[in-house]
Amino acid sequence: MGSTSTTSSALVHHFRLTTRNLDSPTKRPHAVNFCSSWREAGLRYAVTQRRSKGLGRLSALDDSSDDSPTESTPGAGSAVEDRPPAVSFEQEDRASPVYEFLYPRKEELPDDKEMTIFDHLEELRERIFVSVLAVGAAILGCFAFSKDLIVFLEAPVKTQGVRFLQLAPGEFFFTTLKVSGYCGLLLGSPVILYEIIAFVLPGLTKAERRFLGPIVFGSSLLFYAGLAFSYWVLTPAALNFFVNYAEGVVESLWSIDQYFEFVLVLMFSTGLSFQVPVIQLLLGQVGVVSGDQMLSIWRYVVVGAVVAAAVVTPSTDPVTQMLLATPLLGLYLGGAWMVKLTGR
Questions:
Q1: Partner of 62 at 20 to 30 A CA spacing, among 80, 91, 236, 240?
Q2: Which residues contact 261 (CB under 8 A, 6 or more apart)?
Q3: Which residues cross the membrane (predicted)?
């Protein structure tokens, strides 16, 4: 009975404390003005939502103690109103360059149109079919002049007394097919590039289209420059090293198939490795890395260029590796400065 009467008296005392002076005209404005502005109401809603999602402790809009509701805190309303509005995490993510690249706004897509997945697959099938036809026609045309192409590719070592042999039946025939395939792919690459651009063009924004022309032109120019550098610099240097090393000991009688495999792989790998500035420009425009960050890791780039040259070149001699690593390093530094000059 003693504990029951004590609990009842405590409840009555608490009820009196929380309900006294509610009719007083001096206390009512404090109770009414607690959420007098829309900003306070928005902040209280944001705080409630963040607490319910478990985003951490936020010190905002704590109510006064129930024991003394009649004591108003001066300037409480103005202090709450001066607090900045809460920024949603979705707005913070949209401000990032990667988010803008993956999810562009609709007004930035001038040729945007609704297509189903089957429509995309049908368009892709048609463009692949056109590319295959173009490459096939180029291969047939190169096969008609395959002997002239072989004589042209034999020129880097022809003056050093190297002779080529056919070590198996049909080896020369399959070598002509291989040379025709590489040359046909090279001649058909503009059609492939056009079909790729036409397929992805509706999904590009206006800002990305401004860089499309320079990137395509620069990529093509660098690829053909890599082929020319490999034919006139890398291939003669590598083959001269092997010929001079074997001079006076063995006679240079090379397999025609292995020679062309060496030359073609070296030329195409060099052309692909010359695409480093294009990749840098794309990463800079997307916002993944800046020009200053690219320049700050030049020590690692030196080591990476040597390792890449060792992997790309089919030969194991240090001369060819250094001859390829030097332009790779120069292209990387040039691409980093180009990204920096564009303001990225």
A1: 91
A2: 178, 314
A3: 128-146, 179-204, 211-234, 262-283, 295-313, 319-339
Return the number of other C-beta atoms located less than 10 Å from residue 105's C-beta.
9
| pLDDT tens sequence across 122-161 | 999 999 999 999 999 999 999 999 999 999 998 888 777 7
Tokens standing for residue 138 = 């180029």
Token pair, residue 279, equals: 């990749």
Which of 143, 217, 144, 214 shows the shortest CA–CA distance to 181? 143
The pTM of this model reads: 0.63
Which amino acid type is present at position 117?
I
Best CA proximity match to 255, nearest among 178, 143, 195, 344: 178
Per-residue DSSP letter, 288: S
208 close to 111: Cβ distance less than 8 angstroms: no
pLDDT of residue 103: 57
Q: How far is CA 14 from the centre of its chain?
A: 64
Cα(168)–Cα(257) distance, rounded to whole angstroms?
A: 10
First to last CA, the chain: 79
Of 263, 292, 147, 278, nearest to 223 by C-alpha is 278
pLDDT in tens, 231-281: 998 888 888 888 888 887 888 888 898 899 888 888 888 898 899 998 888
Spatial contact of 275 and 223, defined as CB atoms under 8 Å apart = yes
